[in-house]
Amino acid sequence: MTETRTRVTVVLATLLLAAGLVVAPVSAGHSPGVYSFEPDDASVAAGETVAVDVVLSANRTPAGDGISETGFTVDYDADRFSVVDVEHGSWFEDGDASIDSEINRSSAVDEDVGTVSVETALESPGNGVANSAPVATITFQADEDADDGESELTFANSSAATPSSPTPTITNTGTLEVGEGVLGASGFGPIVALGSLLLAALVGLRRAKND
């Protein structure tokens, strides 16, 4: 009787696995890398620019392997925004371990489709790196005639790998908002100048009062 039950259990487990109803643990304890935008709700005025970091948070595997390769493609609204700069971050250099390796970096922008692709890899990976930091910074410019409203920032794909195997990744979404009265990265100059003038005026009034 016990042998029959055991056989039935094995058969059921096999069928469930084949149907995808049970997920066998592939790498127990290995948390996925997480790609996200910072800020995840960027705002900018029409014609202005705003910088958005692509942040990767990734830990080491139970075996001690860190990340040696990263890659992603971001989708943006090419009808309302353009990409004016893509800057690679120092994710590997600022990780939890020093690296003695050249870093291969590449990036590509497709303005017709509205995608930004970035890849980074260690030539001599060693044990890789764990970190939570920007892997790249993308600077967007809102079109001069862009209507007010939000557009989504999403990851078309993402990847990461340790020296020995691929690492699972998950992604978060973000938004780019265009609106009147919203300041972009280049919109703080007038405010800084006005603040300096007000500060100088206050200092002058205080000195005059003391005299």
Structure write-up:
The structure is a single chain. This protein has 211 residues and is of the alpha+beta class. It has one domain: Immunoglobulin-like. 19% of the residues lie in helices and 41% in strands. The strands form two sheets. Strands 2, 4, 6, 7, 9, 10 and 12 form a seven-stranded mixed beta sheet that branches. Strands 5-8-3-1-11 form a five-stranded mixed beta sheet, with no helix packed on it. The longest helix has 22 residues. The chain starts with a helix and ends with a helix.
Write the layout of secondary structure elements.
Blueprint: H1 2-19, E1 33-38, E2 41-44, E3 49-58, E4 69-75, E5 81-88, E6 103-110, E7 115-122, E8 131-142, E9 149-161, E10 166-167, E11 169-171, E12 174-178, H2 189-210
Parallel strand pairs: 1-11, 2-12
Antiparallel strand pairs: 1-3, 3-8, 4-7, 4-9, 5-8, 6-7, 9-10, 9-12
**Helical/strand content category:** alpha+beta
Number of strands: 12
Helix-strand pattern:
HEEEEEEEEEEEEH
Terminal CA distance reads: 105 Å
CATH architecture: Sandwich
Mean pLDDT across the residues is 81
Over all CA atoms, what is the radius of gyration?
25 Å
Summarize this entry quickly.
This protein is 19% helix and 41% strand. With 211 residues, it is α+β, with helices and mostly antiparallel strands. The chain has a single domain, classed as Sandwich (Immunoglobulin-like).
